[in-house]
Amino acid sequence: MNPETEATMLETPSLTQPPEDVDTDDCLSTYSYLFSPDVLKDRVAFITGGGSGIGFRIAEIFMRHGCHTVIASRNLQRLSEAAKKLVDATGRRCLPLCVDVRQPQTIMAAVDQALAEFRHIDILINNAAGNFLCPASALSFNAYKTVLDIDTMGTFNVSKVLFEKCFQDRGGVIVNITATLSYKGQALQVHAGTAKAAVDAMTKHLAVEWGSSKVRVNSLAPGPISGTEGFRRLGGKWAESGNLFDSIPLQRPGNKTEIAHSALFLASPLASYVTGTTLVADGGSWLTSANNFSAMLGHWSTEVKQDK
Ligand code: HXC
Ligand code: NAP
Asked: Ligand 2 pocket check: which of 70, 71, 73 to mutate, most ligand atoms within 8 Å of Cβ?
């Protein structure tokens, strides 16, 4: 290889190198722009579950690109603390609002409040979800229903309210955060797997029905993402200590900033002709990751015993 080319290759980070992230629900200490900093200038995004994990980082990255945000979930104290961090780091506005996505009245009240504050909403990120490891045989009827109510019903409820109160007249973008769990029937995940598969189906139905109102609807399916509640609950540390992430084609878990960048692409005009599809952002994980029922069951029973 020509020495000049070799030197340039050594200096240039690879195109699979992850951007900076922090494992806590705090803003990034430094940020290097890859997209235009104005790509979402003066847009407003309504982000369910935006007070923690992936939703928090999506709020931060959107705000760093000029967007104002509404972050909505059940725990108002955590949301208010998150909003303060987001405003301090980005200088954009952030409105924390109490919502249970299973209760349409709370969504309607929150959307009215958000519209009173911002006059319009352009983007909806359906990110709120509930999950835990549990084999189907140990799952109560109510546990299964609870996860479907939050993930599937919640996504429909918030989408319908925003469509009727806002997107129907002025267009908009919806990004549904789903998962790859159903692609291979992931062990101990029948509840979340079926809930997210239903959301991927909903994405297609709503894209077809709402396209003529200039609404784009897409799913974004992350793989294992470090520094999140999902990672903690679904055995991320256990997988890491057993070198299970070596089997992922990109050989590592993802980080929250990577998912936020994918959400930014889908929400932005760069994706103006993209609707009704699922963007899988998982390092190729679902193609190769282990799905060993007895090993997962062993891990789950150890965890359950430790909790007692
Ligand atoms: C089995 C459980 C359980 C567990 C709760 N339940 N936790 N069953 N194993 N670990 C059962 C309860 O016993 C009850 O059934 C029913 O579920 C409802 O429980 P509640 O606590 O009353 O529900 P609620 O207060 O509404 O809380 C919802 C929740 C909770 C999902 C259970 O954990 C939550 O609020 N989670 C939000 C945060 C979260 O989960 N983040 C991770 C998202 S990660 P009974 O029969 O006793 O009444 C994610 C990753 C996807 O989604 C893909 C990753 C690759
Ligand atoms: P998280 O921080 O626990 O995020 C879930 C959020 O949902 C919380 O902020 C929670 O806030 C909110 N929420 C839960 N129930 C709600 C309800 N009934 N009404 C309103 N809000 C509710 O977990 P995360 O790991 O970042 O997950 C974020 C999203 O990514 C989820 O959709 C998840 O399925 C998806 N995902 C995560 C991973 C991963 O590796 N982490 C992988 C694939 C997909 P409150 O408690 O305040 O309500």
From this structure: 73
